């Protein structure tokens, strides 16, 4: 599949691995959050253009902070936290208790070097899903290659923290399609 990726898209994937391996993103697998962090670092690409044109140019640090906060909640989105609250489970209280005993960020999954596994990072199921969706998005838009903009579009389509954080800043699939292709999101790939 990566032979269809543009240089910009391959650079996003490579940067996502660097977030995992460098300890900046926690965990041992590339997840959708790592792909979004890598996209936020980009300049001069179609994905970077789409983010800036969607009004996220100056708000990138707010997105990074929202991703850090979600990571502290063990990667739970606000919708998931709200659903648990409906069952009487206070995620904020659980995080506070765990951090009181084990330190700030203990639920973030950043336990590099503390487990049995010491090989190269791989893709988590969420990142695999995003990359597969990026192919479907490119095909739906009749693009021959998968660019970083297709990864960005795929992130907005998949339920979870990245889509929630982007939507909080007005970046949705439909707004990105308008910016990138000059039309509404009618060619949405599943």
Provide key terms for this protein.
globular; Double Clp-N motif; mainly alpha; Peptidase; two-stranded parallel sheet; Clp_N_dom_sf; 2% strand; 190 residues
Structure explained in plain terms:
This is Peptidase. InterPro entries: Clp_N_dom_sf (IPR036628). The protein is mainly alpha-helical. It has a single domain, classed as Clp, N-terminal domain (Double Clp-N motif, Orthogonal Bundle), CATH 1.10.1780. The chain is 59% helix and 2% strand. The protein has helices at 7-21, 32-40, 46-56, 60-72, 78-86, 91-102, 125-140, 148-157, 161-168, 173-181; strands at 29-30, 122-123. It has a two-stranded parallel ribbon with strand order 1-2. It starts with 6 loop residues before the first helix and ends in a 9-residue tail after the last helix. Residues 110-118 have low confidence and may be disordered.
CATH A-level architecture: Orthogonal Bundle
Examine the coordinates and then state which fold CATH places here, giving the name of the CATH topology.
Answer: Double Clp-N motif
Portion in helices: 55-70%
Oligomer category: single chain
InterPro entries: Clp_N_dom_sf (IPR036628)
Protein name: Peptidase
